[in-house]
Structure prediction request, 1424 residues.
Amino acid sequence: MKTKSRFLRAPVEPFTVEADAPAGDLLARMEKISFQGRNLATARRIWEKMLGADCTIFLGMAGALSAGGLRMVVAYLIAHRYVDCLVSTGANLYHDLHETRGRHHFIGSPHEDDAKLQGEHIDRVYDTYASEDEFCENDEWIAEFALTLERRPYTSREFLYRLGEYLWQQTGQEGILTNAYRANVPIFCPAIADSSIGMGLSQARHRDATAGLIDVVGDILESANIVIRHPRTASVVLGGGTPKNFINQASVQAEFFDDRVGGHRYALQIVTDVPHFGGASGSSLEEARSWGKLATDAEQVTVHADATIAMPLLVSALAASARDTLAARKPMTFELSGPTMAVNGRPFPTARFEAR
Amino acid sequence: MKTKSRFLRAPVEPFTVEADAPAGDLLARMEKISFQGRNLATARRIWEKMLGADCTIFLGMAGALSAGGLRMVVAYLIAHRYVDCLVSTGANLYHDLHETRGRHHFIGSPHEDDAKLQGEHIDRVYDTYASEDEFCENDEWIAEFALTLERRPYTSREFLYRLGEYLWQQTGQEGILTNAYRANVPIFCPAIADSSIGMGLSQARHRDATAGLIDVVGDILESANIVIRHPRTASVVLGGGTPKNFINQASVQAEFFDDRVGGHRYALQIVTDVPHFGGASGSSLEEARSWGKLATDAEQVTVHADATIAMPLLVSALAASARDTLAARKPMTFELSGPTMAVNGRPFPTARFEAR
Amino acid sequence: MKTKSRFLRAPVEPFTVEADAPAGDLLARMEKISFQGRNLATARRIWEKMLGADCTIFLGMAGALSAGGLRMVVAYLIAHRYVDCLVSTGANLYHDLHETRGRHHFIGSPHEDDAKLQGEHIDRVYDTYASEDEFCENDEWIAEFALTLERRPYTSREFLYRLGEYLWQQTGQEGILTNAYRANVPIFCPAIADSSIGMGLSQARHRDATAGLIDVVGDILESANIVIRHPRTASVVLGGGTPKNFINQASVQAEFFDDRVGGHRYALQIVTDVPHFGGASGSSLEEARSWGKLATDAEQVTVHADATIAMPLLVSALAASARDTLAARKPMTFELSGPTMAVNGRPFPTARFEAR
Amino acid sequence: MKTKSRFLRAPVEPFTVEADAPAGDLLARMEKISFQGRNLATARRIWEKMLGADCTIFLGMAGALSAGGLRMVVAYLIAHRYVDCLVSTGANLYHDLHETRGRHHFIGSPHEDDAKLQGEHIDRVYDTYASEDEFCENDEWIAEFALTLERRPYTSREFLYRLGEYLWQQTGQEGILTNAYRANVPIFCPAIADSSIGMGLSQARHRDATAGLIDVVGDILESANIVIRHPRTASVVLGGGTPKNFINQASVQAEFFDDRVGGHRYALQIVTDVPHFGGASGSSLEEARSWGKLATDAEQVTVHADATIAMPLLVSALAASARDTLAARKPMTFELSGPTMAVNGRPFPTARFEAR
Prediction:
């Protein structure tokens, strides 16, 4: 028989059913099948490599993940330093705050009569409900917190650190904001004005014309400086949106000032959007290479799946298989309590890129 | 404090990470979150109910699931009678046959140069490869098998039973076709002419003008008679296409002759298509109610996910949690070896609906 | 200034608004923009090339296009020989028959209460309604027609020709079936058993055990022979499903018997499905090259759009710009009235591929 | 014959081909068909109603529409006051600026080798290319412009007005920014830090620690005050993202201070995202009702389509059919040159919601 083509070396191995198999075993066997099952399994492997590779790992988070029940997964990733820096939409942080303060989101139906819900002051996020009155009370709580801050611009990073600190003091509860505060993991929220956190800030402003000033341009400098300080980065993106672009922008902006930066070394994204309409949310990691957002030889994978299916399986498996790698990991330490952040004890330059 | 709205009773419970949690535990906790994670968990619960509810369970299978590594999952569902009747595209049965005969599909890349693959006679299915030469040899094998059959019309059900029998005799290997043969589970393939099995049949015809006659209209009568014989049915659909519609059509056609039939009592579908373009593959289970395909009070769920992610998790969990229900299950027995099939020892009328 | 990269030669030209611009002008200007707008414009250009290139043009049609208001577009394409051979799902032909017989589909809402619709015997297709009672009467009409035919196997091609003939005699109305009959354009329906036409046939069988026998394997031979007779083909696919695969299969099967066949020379598809889940409906035209379904140097384009938006614009433009090319076109003539079809006056071999 | 159901009153009228039909005629006939074709036609009708209904019309713009060739469509809508206020991602404004400055985006391929593009400093957006060197030069140009501004916080609205003014002075070219400047149409960019405009601002900051301060919280107050000043609003959204939410947030925030506000009276969105993954980009307009973002009796439509197909057709038709309505329209006049904007000659309160 003639020699097989080099393209026909690794057979697909059909997934066999084992009752109640553990997450790690599921993914190990899914790596041998096709399509998005294989990609999800590959995502686990790439994340493990990130953890063992002396990289700064950015996590981007868009979509209603906190309201939808994934906030403690993200909180876990932060507390155990599976990631080093979070970039999030405002809504995810707001819904996290809502639950950390002891409120809830509720199981609902996508087919309920929305006029009826509106009549009862219930806000719907697809199949999930929340109390509008409780949301209004959160906005007020945020406004009051914002009024306790100094009357100067805060980057979203500094503001969210302070917010996490205050939330922790008030509640003692785990969550994204509180765990990030306790683990000194920076959070950036480039579109903070497009969220209920922004609405709370605007209500602070309404009461005091000098309150609620967020310096989102400062965030650009800080995020790029994180890359410049250690030009080996990785990117984990859930759902596109501003976080996805902001993480890539940090690398592109950093490269402008430091040619050691050459794009993320590893990248994984879990998205439901598609590339062919041209939007950034669905853009491919191949395309990211053209921009230098991703190193030309980076290991990367895109998983086309809802994060509410992909993340429980992926992180449950990773938590076991990456245990040793994680224990040996020596991530950078951040100092986040002031207007100028520091990394590994050395502060960034004030209002400047850390150009070489 | 005032009473909560009735809409705000069941809180979303954030998923918490437990290292290497087993499949059943993952789904149990995903049932308390939102979006497609919740829907996948609900699918497990509904399938369990089907198994405990004296229903005939149809499984529909479209998309490249066999080539993509899920054929042994389907084979398992058949062997253990999680389902009672399979409706499949021809490709899924063909790719199953390919592997049962000892060939493989191979792990590939969606970005490979297709002209190069074509040059090496390699067929690509997204990220999966197969040898075209081996496919041609399968076609020939099917043609030769078809020439061993009587020169009369065979329903796809009878033909596929005989094919499974022959395949089992030749290989002794588990798979969809062979397990269905051994478990006496009928398989319908309404679009058999649109597949390589059809191509094999056409090559039999090429050699003998009286060979390869498949009576797909006969399949309609048999599938409806299965419903009429026991007018309690359930539907599990992977991926839309002709199987989805054919399963619903069996119920609608049966109802025309027997008013006890009132649509499927339970339904779950795992799809990637969407409703708003009007195609049947993406159509909602709500819409199915208008047609009477689904009982008005049926329990149902749609999971928007790739089956290569959803099925490994779902079936691994189900295999544990449904064990007792399955053991107590008394599914109908089929007799499939002749032109007229029998259920529970009693044959269907020849060429007629079993009208009351 | 340094020389521009060869990649930066053709600028995107922003679309400028001209009030009430005609279709052809819209597409001409959309060819200079990006994403799916450009692809739709490219589809027009490729279709024009097909018409001028001595090709046999296959049209595939899946999704609820007839119910959704596109049946007269397809009827127009057939009557004027923009296409030479139609491959369709059964539903599209059935819904065409429904309207040709003077019934209607109705404008509805995707949000209506389906239990209420079911109570009034109304079937919903997303935002479109139809009377179930009228559908049942169609089934009966088809059964009665089928009982007038000879008691022998009919290919779907021969059966549908006879059905179009009868429908034309009864109604004198234009439509897909009637226009195809009058223009001698063959229609294949490989999944005819998965449709209400199949249901009508099954009701004929119920009354007469020798009626309603459709030879779908015969369709495979005839469709491949069309390719072998003139091994230059083109493919226009709306919506995936069995028609898409059947058209490609005709080419692949033909190549098995005639090595002059080398895949379609031109291909355009208008789809809403995506490639990354591995299903054939969403598969890319690049992938089709690996199988030899498409010539390696074929001109091709995929338009990711709903056909109810894309087709009105595309065909209205094409009807003007392709006028002269169409007038000069000399398509093959088909003879469809018997069990063996003929092309350009020369019949195919009976029950055989026209192997060289 | 018995009376027809009330559900079966308005028949689908099949689209008939007329060679080179004008845009308005296409849409008029598409309104009688189904699925997204009907929705696009409905969008035209709803937009016409907005124009005749004494509403403030917000336009949201996400996705790569400027790079993709739609910037002059948006510029047209602004100049002719089809819309009154633009909310955009930073990228769309940046790519507009790029072209207004005489640079181009280029027609490319989604299949090009991205490493090769990267090597030539070419950035890819799906099938569209741009010169990275030109982009860097834009960033520098923005930085220099930012350094000419006062050293105080600017809302994105004030900043973008000044940017449009400067761009107009420098180039005299039409575009989104320049037309908005000349028509006194406010532009909000809530995620300005997540874009190359933000990168330009950060480079200004790098040179001068007091430069580049954008007050995005101030934007929340101004956008809500626009709603409070005239609590009749409408929303046109292209593509989700921050603009979609920000427009809705303006209404929700306004209602908090003025109970005459009751959500948008009219809404249309052209999106490619879907609701069932829970993200805001794909969220339905039904869901928006529960939040009070949309009036319970609002007329609304969602078109699931790529804007590069939908917008050329829609706006070309609207430009003709809405001519008279537009001529009679008396939109509010904005005064945008200072830190506090004015509407119809009356300034908003400084740093406060215009609470009653």
Observations:
- Chain D has a mean pLDDT of 96.
